UniProtKB/TrEMBL annotation:
<dbReference type="GO" id="GO:0033711">
    <property type="term" value="F:4-phosphoerythronate dehydrogenase activity"/>
</dbReference>
<dbReference type="GO" id="GO:0036001">
    <property type="term" value="P:'de novo' pyridoxal 5'-phosphate biosynthetic process"/>
</dbReference>
<dbReference type="InterPro" id="IPR006139">
    <property type="entry name" value="D-isomer_2_OHA_DH_cat_dom"/>
</dbReference>
<dbReference type="InterPro" id="IPR020921">
    <property type="entry name" value="Erythronate-4-P_DHase"/>
</dbReference>
<protein>
    <recommendedName>
        <fullName>Erythronate-4-phosphate dehydrogenase</fullName>
        <ecNumber>1.1.1.290</ecNumber>
    </recommendedName>
</protein>
<feature type="active site">
    <location>
        <position position="253"/>
    </location>
</feature>
<feature type="domain" description="Erythronate-4-phosphate dehydrogenase dimerisation">
    <location>
        <begin position="305"/>
        <end position="378"/>
    </location>
</feature>
<feature type="domain" description="D-isomer specific 2-hydroxyacid dehydrogenase NAD-binding">
    <location>
        <begin position="113"/>
        <end position="272"/>
    </location>
</feature>
<dbReference type="InterPro" id="IPR006140">
    <property type="entry name" value="D-isomer_DH_NAD-bd"/>
</dbReference>
<feature type="binding site">
    <location>
        <position position="151"/>
    </location>
    <ligand>
        <name>NAD(+)</name>
    </ligand>
</feature>
<feature type="binding site">
    <location>
        <position position="191"/>
    </location>
    <ligand>
        <name>NAD(+)</name>
    </ligand>
</feature>
<feature type="binding site">
    <location>
        <position position="273"/>
    </location>
    <ligand>
        <name>NAD(+)</name>
    </ligand>
</feature>
<keyword id="KW-0963">Cytoplasm</keyword>
<feature type="binding site">
    <location>
        <position position="274"/>
    </location>
    <ligand>
        <name>substrate</name>
    </ligand>
</feature>
<feature type="binding site">
    <location>
        <position position="248"/>
    </location>
    <ligand>
        <name>NAD(+)</name>
    </ligand>
</feature>
<dbReference type="InterPro" id="IPR024531">
    <property type="entry name" value="Erythronate-4-P_DHase_dimer"/>
</dbReference>
<feature type="binding site">
    <location>
        <position position="71"/>
    </location>
    <ligand>
        <name>substrate</name>
    </ligand>
</feature>
């Protein structure tokens, strides 16, 4: 059995090695030849498997039996085409959701420090309350931050505008996007890319809505790049310059708009979910699905793949403001400024496309907030609610 695997998928040898012969390829090089010569395919979001490619491969005699994507999103894979050819499919829902929430908190606390405001004084609007947005909503609420949420498909499925059952108290229920734009200081996008149907998200923030953003608003997109009209955002930032933007996802990746990159407050190369923990969860979820598809036992546990974090613990005494303590802890684990600088440096050194991909392919190991145990001395116990809400493991003194 020949298994073609994106070379950015960690622990592939440990998981898939016993199932067949592995062939590693860069994600953007997995195309027709790879499909025609593979029994199974394991990809990430940069590999597009559309109907034309799948049909062409099968018409050429491909023996493909299974496709797995080690990502939450699946819009890069035509699942209907796979099903039509009897090819099994699996994704990794929720695998890197915790890492994306870590990214959002790191970005917002960094911006708050730069601009002189406190996150606890802001109202946050979350668009898309799925695996990522739901976790972000829960963490922010646990930190005492007021949130509004917008998720029309979820409202349609639930048949109500309530947010009951999500374990969140500090929200006012689901509302519409224009209300979020009008009432929130921070707007976080965590939606899939949907081009048609009753709730399309392509250019969800179009020129009209970007113009409606209240001066001082922070716009953060860690969902899909095409959900924001990049030209309209560039125009708003280059003109009035009265809003702030944090972008991890972009239109036309990897050849993103250099002018927009230069205007955003924080810009990163689609790495919000790139924690080691999240990647390994994705690998393990697809490995388990492939094993079941082949009728084989799942021999490896996720725990067996995870190593000890480089910094496992931190001790805090009294005297720190809660948000200063939070910055100290989150930067011990992950500092978004590193990724912002890397994108700017490598895109200038190598050119936009190569630099963008280079940052992703050579991304350094990063762990999640939950791997850090924070011990509080007796005088610092007041920090516990903020730190626990953010996702750290806290031991009170």
């Amino acid at each position: 059995m020949r298994i073609v695997v994106d070379d950015n998928v960690p622990a592939a040898e440990a998981c898939f090695g016993e199932l067949g012969r592995l062939v590693r390829l860069p994600g953007r090089e997995i195309g027709l030849d790879a499909l025609c010569n593979a029994d199974a395919l394991v990809v990430r979001s940069i590999t597009r498997l559309d109907e034309t490619l799948i049909d062409e491969a099968m018409a050429a005699g491909a023996r493909l039996r299974f496709v797995g994507t080690c990502t939450i999103g699946t819009d890069h894979v035509d699942q209907e085409a796979l099903a039509r050819h009897g090819i099994g499919f699996a994704s990794a829902p929720g695998c890197n959701a915790a890492a994306v929430v870590d990214y959002v908190l790191s970005s917002l606390l960094t911006l708050a420090e730069y601009q002189g405001w406190r996150l606890t004084d802001r109202r946050v609007g979350i668009v898309g309350v799925g695996n990522v947005g739901g976790r972000l909503l829960a963490r922010l609420s646990a930190m005492g931050i007021e949130c509004l949420a917008c998720d029309p498909p979820r409202v349609d499925r639930a048949g109500s505008t309530g947010i009951e059952g999500m374990g969140v108290e500090s929200t006012k229920g689901f509302t519409d996007l224009d209300t979020l734009i009008d009432q929130c200081d921070v707007l976080c996008l965590h939606t899939p890319l949907v081009s048609d149907g009753p709730h399309p998200t392509h250019h969800l923030l179009d020129a009209q809505r970007i113009a409606q953003l209240v001066p001082g608003t922070v716009l953060l997109n860690a969902g899909r790049g095409d959900c924001v009209d990049g030209l309209a955002l560039r125009s708003r930032l280059a003109g009035p310059g009265d809003i702030s933007a944090v972008l991890d996802v972009w239109e036309t990746e990897p050849g993103i708009d250099g002018a927009l990159r230069d205007l955003v407050n924080l810009g990163t190369p689609h790495i919000a979910g790139y924690s080691l923990d999240g990647k390994l969860r994705g690998t393990h979820q697809v490995y388990a699905a492939m094993s079941r598809h082949l009728g084989l036992p799942v021999r490896h546990s996720l725990e067996s793949l995870l190593a000890e974090p480089p910094v496992a613990g931190l001790t805090l005494d009294g005297g720190l403001e809660p948000e200063d303590a939070l910055r100290l802890c989150l930067r011990t684990v992950y500092d978004v400024r590193r990724d912002h600088v890397a994108l700017y440096r490598e895109s200038r050194r190598q050119g936009m496309t190569s630099g963008f991909d280079s940052c992703r392919a050579q991304y350094p190991l990063r762990r999640e907030f939950g791997t850090l145990r924070v011990e509080l001395r007796a005088g610092a116990n007041e920090l516990a609610p903020m730190l626990e809400g953010a996702g750290f493991r806290v031991a009170r003194g």
